[in-house]
């Protein structure tokens, strides 16, 4: 039976998604559902799919099932609780015998949720907060905040930012500096995983430690991932989108792989049958083996921390090589020890 994909543009507007998915079910009569990208458009769907008893494959959402508890939701994103985004960052900071921390966080719900998890981890490690600033989403000038961080002399600087903010913060740090006290800076900066951003910032990235989901390091050379990225890159360059595709595309492909395995093994398209299979079996994908736990999230989170090293300016191809995004935590995927920011940033 040929697979047909029926897609609609939700325009990243959460108000549109319940209507779109109702149409997919009642008019198009689709067999299987894949969620839209991200948390905000997905959250309004959860009551609908639970009421209808439909399997929904998640697509990079965060905690959308934590209150609904739908037993047929399975997220493709390798995090689970808020702390899973940040624990490896602070683990890396242990090497420097850190005592103090600064927080710079976007004033948006998702960012604040992650920051709360990070602050809990920091408190449990006995780190003293010496600077804390939430900034409005439209902020473009971070110079005063970077100067304040420099004056506070923290050992660690934790940043939770979105792509435009991330670029501005990295540039501001390059211009102003954070001082010799800072051994570790980064954490949860969205955007530093994207090819255009990495190419634009170039050597300014050196020394930053940030979360990632996949890096071309030997410990993440999962079966099939290089072949997929090679095929993807050719199409991406033609379409003028992210030419590396490390952040989202492999995990999107994994959704299809998991559905394929479940359907093939059960010889069924019944939502309950497929959900049971996904709950009870380890799924083999190009982003590694996945086993599901509570509320359809990964049983074992796998958010790695990478440190940019030896990055040159205006060269996106360098990021296809190992050694430019060295995995410093967790131990299972580590390809190098973290280096203090002042040394790695030179």
Derived structural class: alpha/beta
DSSP strand content: 15-25%
- Helices, by number, come to 12
How is the main sheet built?
7 strands, mixed
- What overall form do the CA principal axes indicate? globular
What is the CATH class of the largest domain?
Alpha Beta
SSE map:
Blueprint: H1 17-26, E1 33-34, H2 39-42, H3 46-52, E2 56-58, E3 73-75, H4 87-93, E4 100-106, H5 109-124, E5 128-135, H6 143-152, E6 156-161, H7 163-176, E7 184-189, H8 195-201, E8 209-212, H9 225-239, H10 249-266, H11 271-280, E9 283-285, E10 288-290, E11 304-308, E12 325-329, H12 341-344
Parallel strand pairs: 1-2, 2-3, 4-5, 4-6, 6-7, 7-8
Antiparallel strand pairs: 8-11, 9-10, 11-12
Question: What do these coordinates show?
Answer:
With 346 residues, the chain is α/β, with parallel strands linked by helices. It has two domains: 17-80 and 249-296, Response regulator (Rossmann fold), CATH 3.40.50; 83-219 and 303-344, Rossmann fold (3-Layer(aba) Sandwich). Helices cover 35% and strands 16% of the residues. It has twelve helices and twelve strands. The strands form three sheets. It has a seven-stranded mixed sheet, sandwiched between helices. Helix 10 crosses helix 11 (271-280). The protein is globular.
Note the main attributes of this structure:
Rossmann fold; 3-stranded parallel beta sheet; 346 residues; 35% helix; 12 helices; 7-stranded mixed beta sheet; alpha/beta
Summarize it.
By secondary structure, the protein is α/β, with parallel strands linked by helices. It is built from twelve helices and twelve strands.
